[in-house]
Amino acid sequence: MVTGTRADVALRAAEAGADLATESFRGELAVETKSQKIDVVTQADRDAQTRVTEVLREGFPGEPIIGEEDETRNSVPDDGPAWIIDPIDGTTNFVRGIQVWTTSVAATVDGGPVAGATVCPSLGDTFVLDSGNAFRNGERISVSDRTDPEAFVVVPTLWWSFDRREEYAAACRGIVERFGDMRRFGSAQFELALCASGAVDAVVTSVRGHPWDTIVGVGLIEAAGGTVTDIHGDPWRHDSQGVVASNGAAHDVVLEAARLPETVVR
Question: How many CB atoms lie within 10 A of CB 70?
């Protein structure tokens, strides 16, 4: 039995997961590593995902759920509905007591975002995608209206592994040579939400992102009037190579910077 719209349920689930994770924030944590020394997971991640899943199953029983901490990860279906969970996006921040982390829940239909929520409990911000509109704390948001790249603040997001650090350096060089300033926050969903709200002007990576790191944020930016493509300039999908998101005013310049890491591996 459906109980609420997809946006309602996404928000309810994200808030429930964030509340549970907050109980462990800045407490004693058992930290495990995954694929890299800086790629960490805690019991709080797993517990928050379980709580989010419970709320989603209450709201939309029987629909597929894909979470970052699933032992068997499924791909986002290109047909029909699905839910995508990142219980703690920014776990490295979380374990170090840094307040920039989120719980994010996306609702997709035929592979694309239709609703979602990104809750930033330690910062007091909640971003919601609902009916083609983007909101922060209940107020409509929009991307920035800046047009001069030299006034842009741009974020290199996601992470390049140790064997790809030359690409990471190239990405940073592409940003500092073209734009006014650079920021990095350690939570892709938060960074994308900042772009949707106009706080930063672009977010870029040449890395193929996981859907739980990107889908809600991409939906927010598009709903807020921005542009999101892959590194080739084609429309972004959950399985695209790279994420290039901007306010749309100088997307060609943003794309140019995002493509620079490709020159390192050719």
Answer: 14
Residue 126 belongs to some domain of the structure: yes
- 251-265 and 165-178 helices cross at what angle (nearest 10)? 150
At 34 the pLDDT is 63
pLDDT score for 1 = 46
Percent composition of the chain: helix, strand, coil (DSSP 3-state, to 5): 35, 25, 40
What tokens were used for 124? Answer: 């007091």
Is residue 63 packed enough to be buried (19+ CB in 10 Å), middle (13-18) or exposed (0-12)? middle
Give, in order, the Cα–Cα distances in Å from 14 to each of 105, 134, 169.
6, 16, 34
CA angle at 219 for the pair 239 and 63, rounded to the nearest 5°: 70
pTM of the predicted structure, to 2 decimals = 0.93
Domain-embedded: residue 1 = no
Among the candidates 140, 159, 185, a domain finishes at 140
Please indicate, yes or no, whether residues 136 and 10 belong to a single structural domain of this protein.
yes
Beta carbons of 74 and 66 less than 8 angstroms apart = yes
123, 177 in Cβ contact below 8 A? no
- Give the CA radius of gyration of the chain: 17
Using a 10 angstrom Cβ sphere, with 0-12 exposed, 13-18 middle and 19 or more buried, the burial of residue 157 is buried
Conformational region of residue 110, where left means phi above 0, alpha means psi within -120 to 50, and beta covers everything else: left
Do residues 14 and 127 share a domain? yes
Weakly modelled stretches of the chain, pLDDT under 50: 1
The pLDDT of residue 36 is: 65
